[in-house]
Write a structure and sequence with these properties.
229 residues, mainly alpha, 75% helix, elongated
């Protein structure tokens, strides 16, 4: 069962990531009629929403676009920063969507930020427990299963909270691009939606994978409890 879940989760991750890259590259070949670059779109949306103090930085990492709340800056990959394609505009507006969430105190974003430390600790825990504990015989199997279930539970909850954060940022991006005239036709709006929806699949795949691993370690504990009853 363990091997099957690993194969399923790796397969989900590869399929989701491959689909994202495929859609991004496809719509990177479709220029927007407005002619704005991703950096210009990000700058204008920030300005229109009173966020002139949020910086915009360029990164050489492919699809490494993100919003950094600690430094209050939107980081865009070079392809998005300089690109005028539907992919570039969609991704840039999505990251600005996170800046707007931060400005407005969007609760799921706040919750996800608070959970980063616990999630990092949980990730370390699920890595070391099988190697040093359960396999090395340094702890009882029931304790090992419990700790693994707790670790995967934390990661699963983090991935669950991430879903509304990402979907909300994409919804904001689509609305702002159309309302401000960066996307001018139904076909362009559809292309942006395809790119952003594809990106959302990676977060959904991460949630499903973490849920499967949680069940893998939780169900044996339920069985142990019933056998004792």
């Amino acid at each position: 069962m363990h091997i099957l879940i690993i194969l399923v989760t790796v397969g989900l991750a590869l399929l989701a990531q491959g689909y994202v890259q495929s859609m991004f590259r496809r719509y990177s070949q479709v220029s927007s009629s407005s002619g704005y670059s991703g950096a210009e779109v990000a700058s204008e949306i920030l300005r229109r929403n009173g966020l002139g103090d949020v910086g915009i930085a360029e990164s050489n990492s492919f699809l490494g676009d993100h919003y950094d709340p600690s430094r209050r800056r939107v980081v865009l990959s070079s392809a998005v920063f300089h690109g005028t394609s539907l992919s570039a505009l969609g991704v840039a507006a999505h990251e600005v969507g996170h800046a707007l969430q931060h400005q407005q105190g969007y609760f799921p974003l706040h919750l996800r930020t608070l959970a980063v430390g616990a999630t990092h600790f949980a990730s370390q825990m699920i890595f070391w427990i099988p190697a040093l504990g359960m396999v090395g015989g340094l702890m009882k199997p029931t304790l090992g299963l419990t700790l693994m279930a707790v670790g995967w539970g934390v990661i699963m909850l983090f991935n669950l909270v991430t879903l509304p954060v990402e979907y909300n940022a994409s919804r904001r991006a689509k609305e702002m691009l159309s309302r401000l005239g960066f996307v001018r036709t139904r076909e362009e709006a559809g292309g942006v939606a395809v790119v952003l929806n594809a990106a959302a699949l990676t977060y959904f795949a991460a949630f499903v994978s973490s849920l499967l691993f949680l069940l893998l370690y939780l169900l044996p504990l339920v069985g142990v409890g019933r056998s004792r009853d």
